[in-house]
Write a structure and sequence with these properties.
Layout (H helix, E strand, L loop, with lengths): L2 E13 L2 E7 L11 E5 L12 E5 L9 E7 L4 H8 L5 E8 L12 E6 L4 H12 L6 E7 L8 H9 L4 E7 L18 H7 L7 E6 L1 H13 L7 E5 L4
Parallel strand pairs: 7-8, 7-10, 8-9, 10-11
Antiparallel strand pairs: 1-2, 1-6, 2-5, 3-4, 3-6
This protein binds flavin-adenine dinucleotide.
């Protein structure tokens, strides 16, 4: 993969225990929405067996030529503690892009995105791009979290969908009673009934599933058992969680 020099530009919280890290986007780093890159922090203040390199889906839009954004759960690993503490302007290396978890071209097939937790990152990039380029695809985004506090980009995604009739946004909070906020939306785990209620015909869409491997494996079974053609299911497993 091509290797680029960059620097840490900004960082901020996007949900409970979840941070966005923004880097200068190197000239020549072209990507398609949904792809990932590898981030290397050359001289981290903390070290452990996990090392100083991580793969992250690119969460920012393709049209943002100034910045490249990643978002991650702050698990306490040395790499992530280092990222949270090093000075802005710290040099990093970015390798990429990689992967083929990108939106299909044939707009006559609807897309159903299902994100578990931090699995939202590639979908944010794809949705920003779809809105920007006025893509005609019908897109349903199902976003499963325990509660709204942990749902990165939730308000932004709700606004995007409200402004764009071809995008439906279905957040589900499976432990909404653990939240300090009132929640009147979906609370169910994603299952066959959930999919029939919110997607309807399950034979035509292309399904995209992203998040920790156990979750993606479980969702794949649900989607196929509910009637999706297995060849219509694309997955991005966040190996390492
Ligand atoms: C395509 C892809 C996209 C991803 N996108 C994101 C994202 O947008 N946001 C996000 O938070 N995370 C993402 N991840 C997961 C991310 O790379 C880290 O593994 C995860 O964040 C956990 O890192 P940690 O430092 O918290 O945990 P640690 O346990 O300290 O780190 C995990 C380390 O072990 C390695 N590792 C562990 N298990 C395996 C395995 N089975 N195979 C290979 N290597 C392994 C990891 O690469 C990493 O070096 C993605 C992973 C992949 C493969």
């Amino acid at each position: 993969m091509p290797r680029f020099a960059s620097t840490l530009k900004a960082r901020f919280e996007v949900a409970e225990r979840t941070m966005a890290f923004v880097f200068d986007r190197p000239g020549g780093l072209d990507f398609t929405a949904g792809q990932y890159a590898q981030l290397v922090l050359p001289d981290p203040p903390y070290t452990d067996a996990g090392g100083n390199r991580r793969t992250f889906s690119i969460a920012s839009g393709v049209h943002d030529t100034a910045a490249l954004q990643f978002a991650t759960r702050m698990t306490g690993s040395a790499m992530k503690r280092s990222l949270a503490e090093v000075a802005l302007g710290t040099p990093v290396e970015i390798l990429g892009p990689g992967g083929s978890f990108t939106l299909h071209e044939d707009a006559s097939a609807p897309a159903v995105f299902i994100a578990g937790g931090i699995g939202i990152t590639p979908f944010r990039s794809i949705l920003l791009d779809a809105v920007r380029r006025r893509l005609p695809h019908r897109i349903t985004l199902i976003y499963s979290n325990r509660n709204p506090e942990g749902a990165a980009f939730h308000e932004e995604l709700a606004r995007l969908a409200a402004a764009c009739p071809s995008i439906a946004y279905i957040p589900t909070m499976t432990q909404a009673d653990t939240s300090r906020r009132a929640w009147s939306g979906e609370r169910r785990y994603v299952n066959a009934d959930f999919l029939r209620d919110h997607v309807g015909d399950l034979t035509t869409p292309i399904f995209y599933l992203a998040g920790p491997p156990g979750l993606v494996e479980g969702l794949t079974k649900v989607v196929v058992e509910a009637g999706a053609d297995p060849s219509h299911v694309r997955v991005e497993e966040f190996v390492g969680y």
